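To assess whether the prediction recovers the assembly geometry, we first specified each molecular entity separately, as shown.
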Amino acid sequence: MKTQSKIIVIVASLILILSFFFPIWYIDLEAPQYPEGIGLEIWLNKITGQNPHDLNNINGLNHYIGMKEIVPDAIPELKIMPFIIIFLIVFGLISGISGKRSLAYIWIVLFFVIAAVGLYDFYLWGYDFGHDLNPNAAIKVPGMAYQPPLIGSKMLLNFNAISMPHIGTWILVGAVALAVIALIFDKKIKKREEANA
Amino acid sequence: MNRRYFKAVLVAAAVVAAFVILHYGCQESKDLASGDVASRVYVAPGTYDEFYLFTSGGFSGQIGVYGLPSGRLFRVIPVFSQDPEKAWGYSEESKPMFMTSYGFVPWDDAHHPKLSQTEGIADGRWIFINGNNTPRIARVDLSTFTTAEIIEIPNSGGNHGSPFLTENTEYVVASTRFSVPVPNRDVPIDSYKENFQGTISFISVDKEGAMDVAFQIVAPGFHYDLAHGGKGPSHGWAFFTSYNTEQAHTLLEVNASQSDKDFIAAVNWKKAEEYVKQGKAKTWSTSYYRNYFDKKKHMAFSEQKTSVKVLMPEDCPGVIYFLPTPKSPHGVDVDPSGEYIAAGGKLASVIPVHSFSKMIKAIENEEFETTIDGIPVLKYESTIAGEVTNPGLGPLHTEFDGNGYGYTSSFISSEIVKWKIGTWEVVDRIPAYYSIGHLCIPGGDTRKPWGKYVIALNKITKDRYLPTGPELTQSAQLIDISGDKMKLLLDFPTIGEPHYAQAIPADIIMKNSKKIYPIEENQHPHGIKAEKDARVVREGNVVRVYMSTIRTHFAPDNIEGIRVGDIVYFHVTNLEQDWDIPHGFAVKGANNSELLIMPGATETLMWQPTREGIYPFYCTDFCSALHQEMQGYIRVSPKGSNVAITYGTGK
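The predicted structure of the complete assembly is given in tokenized form:
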């Protein structure tokens, strides 16, 4: 790799650190009774409410339909995710410093594999919360499940649930996109140099 | 010639016709313009009013909260009167707020709301209001719109001239409407002139709002009516009107209306502070209560005070001066510059306006007419800046628009009169329907009036609204003052009798308005933080139920083991932390009230069951789709029964 490309891959790896400081996903719940908004923010290592008491209030609302309580401490992925991102950062730094293009390719492939597995895992949790309902719930609508959309919006009774990537995800995607572009140009320059030579 | 004449007639007729058509056309467009009045007060669904208006509830003892320009009522804040809807004065936590040296007083007559100030500008932290009957001052916290403190005023016969403020809310003032023996004692009423006196009190307000009677000035036995603090150059002074300088004690309507002039008492409170510091104040023993609501503990506490510092004018030269003022003056209002002091001489034919700078000069030059009980009486000509002539009959109160005009309410002629500061000319007048008392301009008694509207606060409505039997609504009227001519926009009914009112731009208060009480900050000694802590504990014949509410159940909701003769305390904590989700609590046959518990708060209802049986209890505030299911049962067994205490939810 050219020096500029190495630097860009190193910078991209370092940018990944920022993803710890922003939520990676959000689920907004829109309803007439909540003009002030209510919703969840999913971070690499925690789930919080958009407002201080939202998580409790959402759990309170969910008990009517028999949904399990969302207890962040009981979700193992939130403990694993930080280490996976740290691993990606270190891997990215090594491939940037060493300048080995093959390592950088592996790094990028790994990133997308992890992203795909993460999204699938998120889908499974959504499926579980949406379908594994207490049979004694007060509100039972035949055929109704309460799985939030993976991405996009969906009406769940009186709530419109909107699930979208948050800043953290855009940081991750942006950083890797930066590295990908750097590698493409690096390859082109190399080809041109080879042709000239 | 005839033909020419005929033509002329035709032309003239055409001109007349055109004029008539145009004229009626104009009439029509004028009517359309009056349709515009409706849009001036229309606040579309889901949008906010521009101002909050706080009106005194008068004999209701409370404060009404309205929006302007719509005139919509948002809330009645319980202050001096018990309110079973909100358990105010019924819950164990709020009962101490009603304590006085006369015991529990469940009502008062609340006249003058006054917003706290910083540098002479309303800041929206608190609103104070006086209790006229059993002399008290209340402080309402405007982050929660609840009464935070009530202090009793000792050595007072009735607290009318109150609770006006100094520029930075250093002091809130009180003055006695009825002179009485001070300290109070058993004397013949006709010994008024020897034994009756007035008091003027300065109540300090600390940074957190806590009030304390700093000192009282004993004044001659007149009736002290209204007050206002100085501002700007007159900061450091406060002005009080007086009537009955005749010192009558019977048939005052005649006997207190004989003198051509009564007085405005000008009090140099900075000087009074110095005298207190120098130890010139006497300490009198007395008894009065200060009651305050602890927001973290969610309960009120009472403390009895047993002494007060008193200044005698004869020992403290320069603290108080009398300004002769025609005739039985009511309001005393200081203009935004702090220079002019307008009096509402309710039986006077003019509005006298005193000049602060002339007053200071007259004091320096000792231009005194006489001295009463050690108080110099200044010469009228030495302090007067001007007189507004033809101000209407029975001028009472003046507010200012900040653009050089004063607006005075005239009770007898039922109108508002607008006059120019400096020239003292009346420039406009508008009728009020009917019998206006106070009036209010947003910020109209501060250094920075926001202007835009004047609100007439009327005593009588007669035919203005649908009749409701002999007792009719009271009313306010919204009048536009943005142009040269005042223009009536809206009538709206008010609670109780509105005396004074205060208005303030909504954003100043909205941004501090709380949504919930954080449950983690709840330090109520009988509060619980989670449903798992709900329990029932017997201590002799006292049973304490530590209960929680959350949508949509009580914990516990089945209670057994209560006996006739027990005293049961329901300590109910609302565990909700969501905006606008209070829960109610009511027990069949309870002799007090319901509870209405805000998110994160704890309130206590005392219950003494007198008959055995099953007693339902339920949530009274429609909280959710399953509100109707939010209920429980209590089993009451006979006295001496051995049914054990058991409780639970969902067992």
